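# nightly structure sweep
# worker-07 picked up a monomer target from the shared queue
# config: single-sequence mode, recycle default, output format = structure tokens
# input follows
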Amino acid sequence: AEFAGVGAYINVPIKRYSSGMQLRLAFAVAAHLAADVMIIDEVLAVGDAEFQRKCLGAMRDVSRRGRTTLFVSHNMAAVESLCTRVMWLEKGEIKRIGKPDEVVREYLTAGMSELRSESAEQRLDDRPRSWVLGNGRLESLTFHRIGDSYGRSPWDVAFGEAFELELKFQLDRPMEGLVPGIAIRSDRGEEILTSHASDAGPLEMPAGSATARATVRVAQPWLRPGTYFLEVGLLSGTRLIDHVRDAAVLVVEDQAAVGAPPLPLKKGFVAPVWEWRYAD
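# output follows
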């Protein structure tokens, strides 16, 4: 009862518990039994952050004691943290069995195929809009590689390689304070960074222009190897004119994949290139 956080309600009939309270109590009982095998299905979908941390700790403790845990979840961070082997099921069929990081990466990128493009220009005309307030519309996002292409596909870059992104948009009428922006999310949905044209000062639109392009140069990329979603928006001041959440998919490859000397494993969201020196 203490583990589940229902001690104050232990004398209340179970039928009056919410579904979340019932699941918390059920997991607490299961975690304290000496069963050889424990099957856990989406237990982390209930409870607050503190209870979820306790669940993760209990499952790690069970594993360390040599007991088997079958953990069923859509929480990829928990799967990678807890599991030593992962099975990906799709419509009742086994899709893949393997190491957690490899299977999770393949699972998360499986739905990206419709966003992957063989063209450097990604058209946005038919992309779903989160909301559209009018007076302008995003038309395309184009990728420009800077330097040797290594024969790779568009939207694939080597770690540390510079590139440019060009955002084309159409305006119904000239506007003041127009601000295009680009955001980058990881394949797990975490927000990595956002950049707006106003970050470096006012951006002057061509006078009377109905169609315009804004280009941003990513001269010192800090993205570690992985797959990323690009999100684009168009604002007038703080008013959002148009927005496309899934505009393109950018793949940052490890240098070894393009024939360059491999680098040590980079952890975290970003991999900045800092200046190091040895002291005498």
